[in-house]
């Protein structure tokens, strides 16, 4: 059986830990013939756009990757994601299942045309955009989302088996903005790549990483990171740990700060309670989660929330509307994020109560690990469970 993943709204970046990477890998591991169709433009680890070096290759996971060139078939609409070769490539690939990662590109019309002519093909579209990252407070964005992308998303409705929102908020966005019927929408969470989560080696990994970072085996270690900008509130977390000044409380921070945060993060990380380790390869992040005791993400959402949960790590998260899916009954606490005193209180409550922490960890291990496993998510994505 052939599955084609289309990554034209969000480009496919080789080696990253995004859903666009992991779902094709999982489907290939399940025995399917898998092709990814993406743009000839890509981003490096500093999120600088560049031209892709290879346009047709098989990656180390056995996934065939084909890069398509953006064209001007429809004049000004090319900037909204027009790829003239998409229909021709689908005809050549002959997919049984098409999984579209984000429907925000004009060439979605070609996917619709293909499915209209091949009614046996199963089509899935997921949604990673929401009211925050789509910036609907700007009239230009509202116009593009409602009238350009929304038009083609609505045209796709008769041919789509399921529209997947990757958070509850994004499910709501599909219904509110694109007017997708609720019965066509369901939640498909993001998660962690089981290939790189070595639970059987957790004690060894924990010991090794803590020794490398000069952390005690009995220290209570918090971890946070990602693309570090002011909205992630990681600088607030570092300041909280500094002010708490507790001998057994340590913080690991990983990731690339933007230009506005770089000097601040580097300066604050000189505190003896903080270990700033810089950029981490996506496959290595899991080891650092396994070596830690509590994930703390007091700012904007990223897939690292779900990845931490997939490692059985309890967490503190910013309380966003429609983002409480990471809580499966007690593994998570929620905070406003920019309130230092509140964050101190919640960290202290967990640190000072073995009973509280053990309850969180039990839920994290028994419920969050299987729920946020991409082995399960990949099956759900094509409705095998």
SSE blueprint:
Blueprint: E1 2-7, H1 19-29, E2 33-39, E3 41-43, E4 49-51, E5 56-58, E6 64-68, H2 86-93, E7 97-101, H3 108-117, E8 122-127, H4 139-156, E9 160-165, H5 168-176, E10 185-187, H6 202-212, E11 220-228, H7 234-244, E12 249-257, H8 262-268, E13 274-278, H9 282-290, E14 294-297, H10 304-310, E15 315-318, E16 332-335, H11 340-352, H12 354-371, H13 374-381
Parallel strand pairs: 1-2, 1-7, 2-6, 7-8, 8-9, 9-10, 11-12, 11-14, 12-13, 14-15, 15-16
Antiparallel strand pairs: 3-4, 5-6
Helix pairs in contact: 1-13, 2-3, 3-4, 7-11
Report on this structure.
The mean pLDDT is 93. The chain has an eight-stranded mixed β-sheet, with helices on both faces. A six-stranded parallel β-sheet has the order 13-12-11-14-15-16, with helices on both faces. A two-stranded antiparallel sheet has the order 3-4. It has helices spanning 19-29, 86-93, 108-117, 139-156, 168-176, 202-212, 234-244, 262-268, 282-290, 304-310, 340-352, 354-371, 374-381; strands at 2-7, 33-39, 41-43, 49-51, 56-58, 64-68, 97-101, 122-127, 160-165, 185-187, 220-228, 249-257, 274-278, 294-297, 315-318, 332-335. A hairpin with a 5-residue loop joins strand 5 and strand 6. It has two domains: 2-188, Rossmann fold, CATH 3.40.50; 194-371, Rossmann fold. The protein is elongated, with a radius of gyration of 22 Å. It has 385 residues and is an alpha/beta fold.
CATH topology of the largest domain: the name is Rossmann fold
Total tally of structural domains: 2
- Helix proportion of residues, in percent? 25-40%
Largest sheet: 8 strands, mixed
Q: Kindly provide the radius of gyration, computed on alpha-carbon positions and rounded to a whole number of angstroms.
A: 22 Å
Oligomer: single chain
Beta-strand share of residues: 15-25%
CATH class assignment of the largest domain: Alpha Beta
Helical stretch tally? 13
CATH superfamily of the largest domain, please?
A: Glycogen Phosphorylase B
Low-confidence stretches: none
Count every beta strand, where a strand is a DSSP E run of 2 or more residues.
16
Sheet with the most strands: spatial strand order: 5-6-2-1-7-8-9-10
Order of helices and strands: EHEEEEEHEHEHEHEHEHEHEHEHEEHHH
Give the overall shape, derived from the CA principal axes.
elongated
């Amino acid at each position: 059986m052939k599955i084609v993943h289309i990554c034209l709204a969000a480009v496919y970046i080789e080696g990253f830990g995004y859903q666009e990477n992991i779902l094709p890998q999982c489907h290939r591991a399940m025995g399917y013939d898998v092709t990814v169709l993406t743009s000839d433009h890509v981003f490096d680890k500093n999120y600088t756009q560049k031209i892709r070096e290879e346009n047709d290759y098989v990656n180390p996971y056995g996934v065939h990757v084909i890069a398509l060139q953006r064209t001007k078939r429809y004049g000004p609409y090319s900037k909204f994601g027009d790829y003239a070769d998409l229909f021709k490539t689908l005809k050549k690939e002959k997919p049984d299942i098409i999984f579209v990662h984000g429907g925000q590109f004009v060439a979605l019309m070609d996917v619709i045309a293909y499915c209209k002519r091949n009614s046996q093909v199963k089509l899935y579209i997921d949604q990673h955009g929401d009211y925050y990252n789509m910036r609907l407070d700007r009239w230009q964005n509202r116009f593009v989302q409602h009238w350009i992308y929304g038009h083609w998303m609505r045209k796709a409705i008769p041919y789509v088996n399921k529209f997947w929102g990757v958070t509850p908020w994004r499910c709501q966005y599909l219904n509110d903005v694109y007017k997708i019927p609720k019965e066509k929408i369901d939640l498909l969470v993001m998660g962690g790549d089981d290939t790189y989560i070595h639970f059987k080696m957790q004690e060894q990994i924990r010991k090794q990483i803590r020794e490398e970072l000069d952390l005690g085996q009995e220290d209570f270690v918090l971890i946070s990171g990602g693309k570090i900008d002011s909205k992630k509130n990681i600088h607030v977390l570092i300041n909280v740990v500094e002010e708490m000044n507790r001998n057994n409380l340590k913080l690991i921070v990983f990731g690339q700060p933007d230009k506005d945060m770089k000097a601040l993060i580097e300066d604050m990380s000189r505190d003896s309670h903080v270990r700033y380790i810089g950029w981490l390869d996506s496959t290595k992040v899991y080891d650092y989660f396994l070596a830690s005791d509590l994930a703390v993400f007091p700012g904007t959402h990223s897939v690292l929330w779900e990845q931490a949960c997939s490692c059985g790590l309890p967490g503190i998260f910013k309380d966003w509307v429609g983002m409480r899916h990471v809580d499966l009954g007690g593994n998570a606490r929620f905070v406003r994020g920019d309130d230092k005193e509140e964050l101190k209180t919640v960290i202290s409550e967990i640190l000072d109560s073995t009973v509280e922490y053990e309850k969180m960890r039990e839920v994290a291990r028994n419920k969050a690990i299987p729920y946020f496993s991409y082995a399960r998510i990949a099956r759900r994505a094509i409705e095998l469970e």
